[in-house]
Amino acid sequence: MNPYVSLLVATLLPLMATLVFVLLGKIRYYDLIPNSVKQVLYGVTFGLIAVWGTENGIPINGAVVNARDGAVLTAGLVFGGPAGIIAGLIGGIERWFSVYWGVGSYTRVACTISTIITGLFGASLKKKMFEDKIPQWNHALLVGAVAETWHMLMVFITNMSDIKRAFTVVKLCAAPMIIANALSVTLAVLAINILDKDANFNHGKITL
After folding, report:
1. Binning pLDDT at 50, 70 and 90, where does residue 4 land?
2. What are phi and psi of 105, to 5 degrees?
3. Contacts by 113-117 with C-beta closer than 8 Å and gap 24+?
4. What is the pLDDT of residues 28-37, one digit of tens each?
5. CA-based nearest residue to 57, from 175, 142, 176, 171
């Protein structure tokens, strides 16, 4: 698959998964599933999407342009704090080991830490700022941009001994990654805003 097409697919996968869960929410028996089980389901689903983003990114100078963090943020901001943390751990841990099968190693530490922190960041915002409610799309856009800007900063922090190359990597990756990840979580949140402003995945209720 063309790498740019892969990046586009990775950007859209959180939206697709969100729509699937919305449809599941219309099934009466879905509400019988304990919320703890749903949180694991959401977290694993978006964690695997994050993994797909890593494995299908665009390699640039030892780094990988991808939409991994968008999936993690969608899990946390839309589906709940535990889901975001689980997705962040899956995406982050896989990114750490992915160098063994060819994914860029230069940003290994930065990407691993950033992905895990993104999961914690989304979970914290969901609980503290948005009071367990799904944010508006413009808030999601801002959160996505901030999270990815932090990711770029981590590239500098973890490569202080090679700042020239770090600057080159950030210069090449910043714009596409900020746009892709911010757009990824924004589209998922926008879909919920349009379909159901009262949706509450955190407590297993999705009414359309």
Report:
1. confident
2. -100, -20
3. 113/154, 113/158, 114/69, 114/147, 114/150, 114/151, 114/154, 115/50, 115/68, 115/69, 115/72, 115/88, 115/91, 116/88, 116/89, 116/91, 116/92, 117/88, 117/150
4. 888 899 999 9
5. 176
